Amino acid sequence: MDILKQFLGRLHPLLVHLPIGFIILGLLLLWYDRKKQTFKTIIALIFFWAGICSLVTCVTGYLQYRGEGYAFDTVKWHLWLGIVTTLFCFLMYFRIAEKQFLQLLKQFPIALFSVLMLLLISFTGHLGGDITHGKGYLIEPFPNSVKSFFGYEIFVEKPIALTEESWETSQFYEDVVHPVLNNKCVSCHNPKKSKGGLKLHTLEDILSGGENGEVIAPNNAEESPLYGRLILPMDDEDHMPPKEKTQLTKEEIAIIKTWISHGNPSETSIGQLGLPKDLFLSFFPQKENYFYPDTTVVAAHTDSIRAIKEFGIHVQQISNSSNLLSVSCINKPSFANDDFEIFNPIKQHIVVLDLGGTQINDGIFEKLTSLPHLTTLKLDNTSITGNGISRLSQLEHLKLINLTHSNFQSSFIPVLSGFKKLEKVFLYKTKASQLPEKNPNQDSLILDFGDYALPKIAQDSIIY
Amino acid sequence: MDPIERLIREKLMRDAQAKTRRHFIKDCAAGLGGLALGSIFLGCDPLRQKIEKQKITFSERDLNPLATLPPPYTPKVRSVIYLHMAGSPSQLEMFDYKPVLHTLNNQECPESLLQGKKFAFIKGTPRLLGPQAKFSQEGESGNWVSNYLPHFKKVIDEVAFLKAVHTDQFNHGPAQLFMHTGSPRLGRPSIGAWATYGLGSENQNLPGFVVLTSGGNTPDAGKSVWGSGFLPSVYQGVQCRSEGDPVLYIEDPKGLSRDLKKSTIEAINKINKEEYTKYADPEILARINQYEMAYRMQIAVPEVMNIENEPENIKEMYGVEPGKESFANNCLLARKLVEDGVRFVQLFDWGWDSHGTDHSTAVDLGLRNKCREIDRPITALLLDLKQRGLLDETLVVWGGEFGRTPMQENRGNKEMGFKGRDHHGDAFTMWMAGGGVKKGACYGKTDDIGFLGIEGQVSVHDVHATILHLLGFNHEEFTFEFQGRNFRLTDVEGVVIKDILA
Questions:
Q1: N or C: which end of chain B has fewer CB within 10 A?
Q2: Taking every annotated instance into account, which residue ranges of this chain make up the domain Cytochrome C Planctomycete-type (chain A) (predicted)?
Q3: Which of B70, B151, B388 lies at the smallest CB-CB distance from A316?
């Protein structure tokens, strides 16, 4: 029986569309028929059926509310309005069918009924939608200005931007503490919604505390709920922010602690307080030193990647958050120039290409020019001589070339200095040797000829 | 793959993994009757029907647990070579220069230093022991290194020192476990297992995590220091021998042809795959893969583990002794393995426990011999990686499980015949080199006698966090759910040591 109840309950989101359809149809016909008044009986019938369907919908809705564990608070308005809508459908039926026993109804114009009916069905439906899809689902796509116009809460994250130059003169409260509280606490502790009677959006409000008293014990972070609650175990009821909300980072918690233990200063700069830089390092702009090109490409199609993998070539994103690819022929020593075609679908994506130990030759350079984002290129243990390597100068991102154990010739070294971003070339065990004249690009381009040796020294053979 | 199908499969996987012996016994009471009934009603179990009905599609990882996965963040290195000096080398004779300790030589250690400290062997009031080596500042960085390591100065500008590492363990076994698994107790996966689990391995013919030992013994903590803990067992380290066959029984027996071997393995795997569709136990997949990899390894491993074919100058540079078990051989092998795409290479060299109980453990005698055994190979390894362009994509980590005391050991509260130092976890030196590491950096400082870190102290967890960071992980997000909670290599601690990152 329970299963049946639950099943019927789950039909509710489907069945609701029946009364909505009937009601809208009825209202449309009323409008269409407002002058001729020829469809009266049909319209009455429509509202009769709307009422019947609403009744069924109400029952299934109630079953769903009981069966799926909704709280009454969540559904109460939807539930009551649903019942009202049902009753109103029958009222419409009686009004239109002009039943004798309800003479009273005739005193009201049918238009008034229609408007009320429309409002009822809209609100009830909307409340139902809020339950299934979550509050704010409908309004979500709109910009903040529209949302606030409709009375929705908007949350503006305040970035913490300290820099190498400015961190000491930055205001501790205004520039650091306040944004931390704003970003992690204020969404529940603000003038509109002050959980526990506490507001944290201004310093005065912080100091006046909440319904459980003050949240700051002067100079004593451990005794201050504002800090103490942050470090309670996650499962503790009093832990803040609540489990399901975004938590403060370790660094942010340290900021709150420091602020309280320095007597929660309001208009003092970080420098005046003499706080260590370590405390703020995580709020400095993270120097993201992009080794690979800072471009976004659309992810390569999984089918093309699968085909390349099936061919025996190792392909992988450089990281989970990037669509750029690292490609290696480590398991495909038979790879030759003609196989390059297989890379056609991922030419934009390849940043690392390892062709080491394959059958390629100098013809590969021409093909490599079609990889605009290539950054690291490995051609070690191949028979290339370097003839045509000059073509790679058009690759704007190329930083590393590994030519070790190849037949690379000295004569092609000079062209390398024309490569814009090239940082290192590995030339160990090639036909190339150190050039007599200094490389003009010496400062930025490292040519590593390797062949390091550790000469024997006396200590090698002394046994103690 | 269809997301619903994936969810179903994940659930089945999880259920299969969650079944423990306890469940089995619990189920037995009611279960046996049910089983009998079940066979009467023939497959009433809804789950079982589902498995049979739906066609399970395998992800790349299902079929090959070592298939590569992209790291969450852009990595700085592709591989790690971890050089562990088992027994713990004396930082005071190698990298941590303490001239003041020299002047305090043979003075009684002040009581205040000893209060609340535990030592493995020191009893009563020990005397301080000055550094036995001569130190000099080398390279452009001007970092200190002792004359025990005459070659190392050549590469000193490549490495970043951590001078004030601390651990809370002072016995070899637990300290080694802590250094490699993040916990002094058994049961956690090692760093290499985490790395292989998280990233897989590019070369499909070689294991992703290889372990090589030297020094005549294996680490005190046993094989758990390269174990997979609660991770699937395929991610544990594969120990290769540097003497004789690299892996025992890697050769086929006489008369067994390669083709026959192949069809045998195919038949076994076919049966195993059927088993998998029935029970959905991921360990079966691991087994299938182990068979296939073992088959491929039979060719690839002897090839990569053969150092005979290396050119003479390389052999000389490392100082290898082919056919023997030596740290030099292992260093050369480490380079070859990393060159062939192995993710994690773990080297253990035994014999660094310089207590001063005899000649071989004296800090002025035996320790010098140990230093000689690693000085050339390590220097050669760094240079060789560099000239092949591998140092930029490899992380080399060096260290022991703890350090040694500034006091001379007085085992049994008696003066000892040789100069030795006891175990000391409060401050010791480690170094890293390679991709993403700040060249020539020196982070952390110990007090005048090298007893405690006074600046830039870092914990074992911090070291782990840094290794994972360089591999492209946020150590706080890299977790594995086991027994109802998420586990991390760094437990609940660890801060990336940014000061040694380039």
A1: N
A2: 185-244
A3: B70
